[in-house]
UniProtKB/TrEMBL annotation:
SUPFAM superfamilies named in the record: P-loop containing nucleoside triphosphate hydrolases
Pfam families: ABC_tran (PF00005)
Keywords assigned by UniProt, alphabetized: ATP-binding, Nucleotide-binding, Transport
SMART domains documented for this protein: AAA
GO molecular function terms noted in the UniProt entry: ATP binding; ATP hydrolysis activity
Descriptive protein name: ABC transporter
Organism domain of life: Bacteria
Species of provenance: Pelagibaculum spongiae
Residues in ABC transporter domain copies: 22-253
Length: 352
């Protein structure tokens, strides 16, 4: 789709498919206590992406999300959502955005169906359309049978899913999820992964922040890592993971290891029922299995021990983390992201 843009002398055409889902340029944030949360952050998330925004506590993730969703005032820089500046076209930008915050911020005494449909009203959806969308997403998220329940009666996992349904009810093109599976059991977490993958396949751009790095590695195609208010890595997940020179494996052995067993040329240790060994990528697995065969060690199974993204994340952040200054993510949220049930029209702390 193209849109003609008229000027005094020229007329140009903008291809809507070329407009970034989220464009951040030179973003700065200094809080009233003097803490510098963002230092000229630049970030572009393309339409249709499933994007991971990761960083240690206090890195600036929550501040970036808060500014993008207009809950926090920026000190400098620009933010556009599908081409709509949050400075000059805030209403249009908000309609493109759905936010799932880390903290539960809905009325605990309100019915599930009302929480979702009332949210749609902030975006001007007619009641009939709001009810239709609410049913659609509550069904997809397994909450339709709970629609008339008071929200405080829901389990933690149900409340997480309720916030996703609420964020999607006005059918935004960009969904930002801040720790969406925190405190959720593994089975439910994976069902939520499947749901998020399905809406992403339908064209919804997703930005995910999470402390479950397995989650980011499984879901996301591209990734940015933020530390001390700056982007320190911004690339595809595949490219980032390719930077690892080694992997750690756990080998389950059929029987106890022979006396004086040794793996020459490997960093290894004996663990319960097997072996933990680090393999260099350039070496491959053949040298390992040659030694195991000579020693008569039979392997029942083999699996990765460490999350590859976690290992890279630690390496990148260890280069420059300063634990003596800054606020952690929870402090950011408490200080700058107000707990409301509206569409994010409230403002955070004033810039200085």
């Amino acid at each position: 789709m193209t849109v003609a843009v008229s000027g005094s002398a020229n007329q140009t055409e903008i291809n809507q498919d070329d407009i970034a889902a989220l464009s951040i340029s030179g973003l700065h944030k200094t809080y009233s206590n003097g803490f510098v949360a963002l230092r000229g952050l630049d970030l572009v998330v393309r339409q249709g992406d499933f994007f991971a925004l990761l960083g240690p506590n206090g890195a600036g993730k929550s501040t970036t999300i808060g500014i993008t969703s207009s809950l926090v005032n920026k000190s400098a820089g620009s933010v556009s959502i599908f081409g709509h500046s949050i400075d000059s076209e805030l209403s249009k930008a908000k309609k493109c955005l759905g936010l799932v915050p880390q903290e539960f911020n809905f009325n605990q005494f309100e019915k599930v169906i009302d929480i979702v449909t009332n949210q749609a009203g902030y975006y001007g959806l007619p009641r009939k359309k709001a009810l239709k969308n609410a049913e659609k997403y509550l069904r997809q998220l397994g909450l339709w049978e709970k629609r008339d329940d008071i929200s405080r009666a829901l389990s933690g996992g149900m409340k997480r899913r309720l916030m996703i349904a609420r964020a999607l009810v006005h059918e935004p093109k960009l969904l930002i999820l801040d720790e969406p599976t925190a405190g959720v059991d593994i089975e439910l977490r994976r069902s939520m992964w499947s749901f998020l993958e399905s809406i992403n396949a339908q064209g919804v751009t997703i930005i995910l922040t999470t402390h479950y790095l397995e989650e980011a590695e499984s879901l996301c195609r591209n990734i940015a890592i933020i530390d001390k208010g700056e982007i320190i890595e911004n690339t595809s997940m595949r490219t980032l993971l390719s930077k690892l020179n080694s992997e750690v494996f756990l080998l389950d052995c059929k029987s106890p290891l022979p006396n004086n067993f040794e793996l020459k040329g490997f960093n290894w240790s004996e663990v319960d029922h097997g072996i933990e060994v680090e393999i260099q990528k350039q070496d491959g697995l053949n040298p390992l299995f040659e030694q195991l065969n000579r020693a008569g060690v039979e392997i029942l199974s083999m699996r990765n021990k460490a999350n590859r993204l976690e290992e890279l994340f630690v390496r990148l952040v260890e280069k420059g983390v300063d634990n003596t200054v800054g606020l952690d993510a929870e402090q950011y949220a408490a200080e700058s992201l107000p707990v409301t049930s509206d569409n994010g029209s409230g403002k955070g702390q004033e810039v200085i």
